[in-house]
Amino acid sequence: MTRRHFAVMFTVSFLVVCASATTIAQDAPQTAWGQPDLQGVWDFRTITPMERPAGRADQAFLTDEEAANLGQEAVDRDVTLANRPAQRTQVDPTGNVDRGTDGAPGSYNQFWFDRGTSVITTQRTSLVIDPPDGRIPPLTPGAERNRAALAEARKDTGPHEPTPGGWVEDLGSNGLQARCITGFNSGPPMTPGGYNNNFQLFQTPDTIVIYNEMNHNARVVLLTGQPHLDLRQWAGDSRGYWDGDALVVETTNFLRETSFMRGGSTAALQLTERFTRESPDVLIYEVTVNDPETWARPWTYQVPMRRNPSPVFEYACHEGNFSMAVILTGARGKEAAAR
After folding, report:
1. pTM tops 0.85, yes or no
2. 183 to each of 162, 262, 298, 321, how far by Cα in Å?
3. Cα gap 175→259, rounded to integer Å
C-alpha cells in the first residue's frame, strides 16, 4: 500500500468517524434552552441482579446466547405461574408472605408483577459495576453488629410483622414500605423491583423533577447552585448540575434509612446519580452509593433505562391505610397465644 493510498484511506475513515459523531450528537434531543433533553417516562425493569451471581464470579458480561436464554426462562416462568391453578397463599419456609411455595408470588397473584423479561442492554452480569467483581462491598463492623442484633430481636418474625412487643415503628426492614411512606424501588436511589418500575422526568432551565410511579414520590432538584438545606427528609435533599451531557444529582440529609436495600442504609447515606441520554430511547442511570456507617467503601451500579411511550398511572398504596390495624391485631394475638 502506498503512502498516498494510506493517506486517502485515513482521511475517509476520519470523515466517516466525524460524520458518525455528528449524527449521534444530532440524534441526542436538546431542549429549547440548549440542555440535553432527558424528559419522558423511563422504564427500569430488568431481570439482571444487583450483584453478580456466585456462579459467574469471573464473568462480567453475558454472551448473546446466555442473555437470550435468561430472557426465555423469565418468560416461561411468568407463563407457568400465570396459568397455574389458583391456590390459597402458603408462606414459604422463611415465613415470608410475599413468596409462595414452588416459586409462586405469594400474597399477590402473578398478574400484578412486572419484573421484566430481559437483562440490561449492556449484558453485564450484575448492575454493580464497581467494585469490578460486581459485588456490593462488605458491611462495616458496626453495621454487622446492628444487623445481627436486629435479626436476633426479630427471630421467627415475618417481614410485615412488628418486632415482638413493638408497634408501627418496629415493622422491620419493610416498615416504611408497609406504612406507605416510601416505595420499595423508588429510593432514592431507584432500583428495579417487582413492579412499578417507571419514573417520569420533567425539566426546566433551573429545575428537574423526578416523579416515581411507586408511591407517587416526586423529588424537586434545583440546578441553581444553592447549597443543601440543613433539613433531613425521607428522600433526602437533592441538588443538581450538568457535567457535559450528564445530569448529576447529589443527595444527602436523609431523615433515616430508606427503602433502598430493604432499609439497609442509614441517615449518613450520600448519593451521586448520573442521568445520561445515550440515545433517543435509552437513558443511562448510574449511582454511586456512599454510606460509611454501612459499607466499607463507596460502590456504583448502573441501569440502562428504556423510554416508555405510555404515561405514568397513579399508584395508590393502601397497606398503610387499611392493613395496619390488622397487622397489629395479628401481632398482639400471636404474642398472647405464645404467653
Report:
1. yes
2. 19, 10, 23, 15
3. 9
The two beta strands, 218-222 and 207-212, are antiparallel
- Please say whether the beta carbons of 180 and 317 come within 8 A: yes
Q: How far is CA 151 from CA 145, 156, 172, 250, 322, in A?
A: 10, 9, 9, 32, 27
pLDDT for the residue 2: 39
Looking at per-residue confidence, does 313 or 240 come out higher? Answer: 240
Read off the DSSP letter of residue 110: G
Is 290:145 a contact under the CB 8 Å cutoff? no
pLDDT tens across 16-71, in order?
334 433 334 447 789 999 999 999 999 999 999 999 999 999 999 999 999 999 99
Q: Residue 308 has which C-alpha cell?
A: 416508555
- The reported pLDDT for the residue numbered 160 is 82
What does the DSSP assignment read for 244-296?
Answer: TTEEEEEEE-BSS--STTTTT--TT-EEEEEEEEEETTEEEEEEEEE-TTTBS
Cα angle, residue 40 at apex, residues 34 and 42 outer, rounded to 5°: 125
